[in-house]
Automatic annotation (TrEMBL):
Residue ranges of every copy of the AAA+ ATPase domain listed in the record: 42-174
Example GO biological process: DNA-templated DNA replication
Keyword Aminoacyl-tRNA synthetase: no
Protein name per the record: Replication factor c subunit 4
Organism this protein belongs to: Anaeramoeba ignava (Anaerobic marine amoeba)
A GO term for molecular function: DNA binding
Family (UniProt): Belongs to the activator 1 small subunits family.
Transmembrane portions of the chain: none
């Protein structure tokens, strides 16, 4: 494989994945507890849970690297993360086989404690049978193996399994920390982000740092492509540059509009316009407004979510009116899941808003 090419294609989420637990942002309780484990060179069975893109996988990979170093990593750490690898058969065979291997090799530069780590990522999709099988294996091999179970929803993990682990909750990353991280990445990659674009990124990623980084990378790729396309004489140069390890062109500016385009998010202005026109409309005008929104192919569930936010913050409405509209939004969301017609549902919301603003 061409090494340069492989460097070029690294997703930024991987490139900027924390290498040590100190680099993990905002999860101080987890990091502090794990730092103690690093000191004592021992870790319990662990259960990480929390929303996507908040550092669960990164944290366990970082601590495993800090314990064993890259040389021993492969022989000491087993990572299972494809959902289809989770049948009871894998639990009985793969995990068992790995757990039985000895763990006596040492790397002098790292603590290399005499155990192995089995990471079961995305465990939400693990069947109950497999979880039950895992519970027995955990007990059987707990001397030489530590399990790290990772999931988004702790309720999907059976109690007897959860109670065998030290549980750590990962919190959504707050905007300020996300912004710092994104600004750092942008600076390192030589791209400029408008203040508003950063806000749009926050809005579309909702505390999911992975999502934010992915949107940032896709947007910057789009810009560099556009620049290359618009100046054909520079195209050749850009291709040559690509071969010499330059990912994006320096000084490209990321705008709010581009972020909305790439993330397929609904701009707040669109929802504002929708609500304003509901307030002022007659039923006839309302049909046109809703039809226009449907034609623009924006995600209706996202429009509902943003409408909910705006209605709650609206000072004109009293609490009863707000509650009525919120209830309507929840009904509509549920009907959409059941396959109801988007236009009719949007119109129903429009009518409800119209009535409450009279
Ligand atoms: N707390 C954090 N500190 C620094 N970077 C982070 C953090 N959380 C997420 N990231 C960034 O997002 C990427 C994805 O994070 P990670 O894979 O650890 O998320 P996760 O919590 O395991 O998500 P999922 O539940 O979807 O598997 C990382 O490579 C890193 O770039
Ligand atoms: Mg993960």
């Amino acid at each position: 494989m061409n090494l340069k090419k492989s460097i070029i294609s690294i997703p930024w989420t991987e490139k900027y994945r924390p290498k040590t637990i100190d680099e993990v942002a905002h999860q101080s309780e987890v990091v502090d507890a794990l730092k103690n484990s690093l000191k004592t060179e021992n870790i319990p069975h662990i259960l990480f849970y929390g929303p996507p893109g908040t550092g669960k996988t990164s944290t366990i990979l970082a601590i495993a690297t800090q314990l064993f170093g890259p040389k021993l990593f492969r022989s000491r750490v087993l990572e299972l993360n494809a959902s289809d690898e989770r049948g009871i058969q894998v639990i009985r065979d793969k995990v068992k086989k790995f757990a039985q291997l000895s763990a006596i090799q040492k790397d002098d530069r790292y603590p290399s404690p005499a155990f192995k780590i089995i990471i079961l990522d995305e465990c939400d999709s693990m069947t109950q049978d497999a979880q039950n099988a895992l519970r027995r294996i955990m007990e059987q091999y707990s001397k030489e193996t530590r399990f790290c179970i990772i999931c988004n929803y702790i309720s999907k993990i059976i109690d007897p399994l959860a109670s065998r682990c030290a549980k750590f909750r990962f919190k959504p990353i707050p905007e300020k920390i996300m912004q710092e991280r994104l600004n750092f990445i942008a600076k390192t990659e030589g791209i400029e982000i408008e203040e508003k674009a950063l806000e749009a990124l926050m809005e579309s990623s909702q505390g999911d740092l992975r999502k934010a980084i992915t949107i940032l990378q896709s947007t910057s790729k789009m810009i560099s492509k556009k620049t290359t396309q618009s100046k054909p004489e520079e195209k050749k140069m850009a291709i040559e540059e690509e071969d010499t390890n330059i990912e994006t062109e320096p000084n490209v500016k990321i705008t709010e509009e581009l972020i909305f385009d790439v993330s397929c998010s609904v701009p707040l202005s669109v929802v504002k316009e929708f609500i304003e026109s509901c307030k002022a409309s007659s039923i006839n005008e309302l049909v046109t407004t809703c039809q226009k929104l449907i034609n623009s192919a924006f995600s209706i569930p996202q429009i509902l979510l943003l409408s909910l936010k705006m209605i709650i913050e609206d000072n004109f409405l009293n609490n009863l009116q707000k509650a009525e509209i919120c209830e309507k939004i929840s009904e509509i969301e549920s009907r959409l899941i059941d396959g109801a017609d988007e236009l009719l549902q949007l119109m129903e919301l429009g009518v409800c808003i119209l009535e409450n603003y009279r």
